């Protein structure tokens, strides 16, 4: 249940929450209220975990690192293995520094 791929589009978890809310609003049943409460609780717990661990940022840094390496290789098709290794090392070190900096960032 990850985020949406397009701006303005609901993530899967947001859609489930809205479906549960709609079900509860239509029926006003205790069962539907419990489902809505559970789904909302899961979303809140996941968001807190992401903020506490910084996993969302780590994933973004990893994606940027991989994309930067791919861009280098694409823009430099005749680069030697040594040049490629140097570029990879540079981007991996930048990734590691950015992840390490998360340790000193405020949690919330």
TrEMBL record:
It comes from the Eukaryota. This is Si:ch211-191j22.3. It comes from Oncorhynchus kisutch.
């Amino acid at each position: 249940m990850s985020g949406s791929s397009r701006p303005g589009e609901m993530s899967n978890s947001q859609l489930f929450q809205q479906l549960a809310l709609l079900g509860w609003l239509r029926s006003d049943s205790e069962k539907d209220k419990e489902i809505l409460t559970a789904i909302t609780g899961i979303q809140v717990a996941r968001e807190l975990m992401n903020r506490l661990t910084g996993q969302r940022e780590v994933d973004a840094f990893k994606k940027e690192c991989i994309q930067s390496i791919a861009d280098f290789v694409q823009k430099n098709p005749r680069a030697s293995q040594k040049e490629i290794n140097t570029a990879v090392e540079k981007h991996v070190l930048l990734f590691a520094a950015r992840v390490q900096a998360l340790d000193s960032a405020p949690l919330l």
